[in-house]
Design goal:
Elements (H helix, E strand, L loop, with lengths): L2 H12 L3 H10 L2 H19 L4 H9 L10 H4 L16 H4 L8 E4 L9 E4 L1 H19 L6 E5 L7 H16 L3 E4 L5 H12 L5 E6 L1 H13 L8 E7 L5 H11 L8 E7 L3 E5 L2 H13 L2 H8 L6 E4 L6 E5 L2 E6 L5 E13 L1 H8 L12 E7 L3 E4 L2 E4 H8 L8 E11 L5 E9 L10 H15 L1 H10 L6 E5 L18 E2 L1
Parallel strand pairs: 3-4, 3-5, 5-6, 6-7, 17-18
Antiparallel strand pairs: 1-2, 7-8, 9-13, 10-11, 11-12, 12-13, 14-15, 16-17, 18-19
Helix pairs in contact: 1-7, 2-7, 7-8, 9-10, 10-11, 15-16, 16-17
Length: 499
């Protein structure tokens, strides 16, 4: 992609009214968008795959000739790539089409192991900016409103901060009245900005960040007597799932009880950038399933007892498959990801299919885009007595409405072995600012966690019925860390307040 192509693409973006794009996705038929997506895959595969030395070598190891991939059926037979069998096996120079087209290099967070370096081309930022702008306009109506967009993800080399800031700035160059501010993981600066926003001429604010940190910001703002319910504050929460209880808690703080449009879940990854966002229809679907109180319905639709992230995505910018309950991504950029195993558990539905399953009507203004659901990562678990306890099981509980008044929702979990070689289930929680170990009911918290863990995880329930206290979590607590130093990588030593 040369400079002329980039300028043309940029010019096209600046001259496209995002409302026209929204209208296109409201009117398009699901059959047409699937066909266009599949055609894009084959055309782009022919262009990109031969240019990537690593991928050519990878296919040669599997005795596959790139020239023989001519249909979507051929493509779906290609072996999966992954971080372990592909990304970490080759130098960055061999993973890209052309190093001269690399505009930025970032790093993954390393949440599932060793961080990896990722290359990005400037022209791809334009595609991702359009995706984010579409979501901002469709969900928060930024056209004609002065909007302050606050980036609260960790700044530096990490992909999330680099990408989100780049995309937001592109949107600001295009849209008058859209301003970007980047305090990152600085809670005091975030609160100062919130305070200034409340007394400013901006009509609305959008905060993008990790759910637990967004909660810290808003809790601190309330403690600082900032009237955050005076103006419209919208939330983009991504990087990790959040519960309906968390959503309810945040809406209470914002003075928007029952108005789900003020919070959107942003499904994203280091490799793909923005994957998908929830919309009015996906929120309605999850809410209706929740209201049914039918756990078997959740398991039937989502293959899990947890309420997953449900969001819509544009299959013309990225291609996704669900294989054995795991999401596989194909994305064409200077560093292409070709049938890449994301390790995210989940699945894909056409909007009409999932709407039919729960008998919900699709409206004319709903986007006719496919739905992606995510229910955690398949490679992040702890094991006790051969029973797997998923980190997302614990997250679902610690971020429940009943506990968020006392704790931040952040946790560390691991299994250790005592001097008698018996496993111990260790759980460390961060206390909410304004509380101490003496002002929270630790017995209630423990009973609540055990009860709900048994409800979510039938294997753990059976285990607990057999072993009782031996498999109950040993809970310790840490006081609130204003510098966001409470780690959640499940590798640090538990410290400070013990119970």
């Amino acid at each position: 992609m040369n400079n002329k192509d980039f300028r043309n693409k940029l010019n096209e973006y600046f001259n496209t009214d995002i409302r026209d794009t929204i209208k296109k996705f409201q009117d398009i038929s699901e059959k047409d968008i699937v066909k266009q997506s599949e055609d894009n895959i084959i055309n782009n595969f022919k262009i990109y795959a031969p240019k990537v030395k690593a991928y050519v070598k990878f296919l040669q190891k599997h005795n596959i000739n790139i020239d023989n991939i001519n249909t979507i059926e051929d493509f779906k037979k290609l072996p999966l790539t992954s971080k372990d069998n592909y990304i970490t096996k080759y130098p960055l120079e061999e993973l890209v089409t052309d190093m001269s087209e690399v505009s930025s290099i970032t790093s993954s967070s390393g949440s599932s192991g060793v961080p990896i370096y990722l290359a990005r081309a400037a022209i791809k930022d334009i595609d991702m900016a359009e995706t984010l702008e579409l979501s901002l306009e469709y969900n928060f109506h930024i056209q004609g409103k002065r909007t302050l967009f606050m980036v609260t993800v960790g700044l530096g080399i990490w992909s999330a901060s680099s990408q989100i800031t780049a995309l937001a700035l592109l949107i600001s160059y295009k849209n008058t009245g859209f301003s970007v501010v980047t305090p990152g993981l600085n809670i005091e600066e975030c609160v100062k900005i919130l305070n200034n926003f409340i007394n400013s001429e901006y009509d609305q604010m959008v905060i993008i960040g990790y759910p637990s940190f967004i909660k810290d910001i808003l809790d601190e703002a309330v403690l600082s007597h900032i009237e955050i319910d005076k103006k419209d504050i919208y939330i983009y929460a991504g990087g990790e799932g959040f519960t309906l209880g968390w959503r309810q808690y945040i809406l209470n703080l914002l003075g928007k009880v029952g108005n789900n449009r003020f919070i959107c879940n942003l499904a994203a990854s280091s490799e793909s950038g923005v994957l998908a966002t929830d919309t009015n229809i996906t929120k309605d679907i999850v809410y209706k399933i929740k209201q049914s109180r039918d756990r078997s319905l959740v398991e039937k639709i989502f293959k899990t007892k947890l309420y997953p992230t449900l969001a819509q995505y544009n299959p013309l910018s990225k291609y996704m498959e669900a294989i054995d309950g795991t999401i596989v991504l194909t994305l064409f950029d200077v560093m292409p990801f070709l049938r890449y195993d994301t390790k995210d558990k989940g699945g894909i539905y056409l909007l009409s299919d999932i709407a039919k399953k729960i008998n919900i009507n699709i409206k004319t203004n709903d986007l006719k885009l496919p739905c992606l659901y995510l229910s955690g990562r398949s490679d992040v678990i702890i094991t006790i007595y051969s029973v797997n306890i998923y980190i997302d099981n614990i997250k679902d509980i610690t971020n429940s409405f009943e506990l968020l008044s006392y704790i931040t929702g952040k946790f560390q979990a691991r299994v250790d072995i005592d001097k008698n070689q018996n496993p111990k289930f260790l759980l460390n929680l961060e206390i909410k600012k304004g509380y101490t170990i003496n002002t929270i009911d630790t017995n209630y918290i423990k009973k609540y966690i055990i009860s709900n863990l048994k409800n979510i995880n039938s294997e753990y329930s059976k285990l607990h019925n057999t072993f009782g206290k031996k498999v109950e979590p040993i809970i310790s607590y840490e006081e609130f860390s204003k510098d966001n130093s409470f780690a959640t990588d499940n590798k640090v030593k538990f410290k400070k307040i013990k119970v």
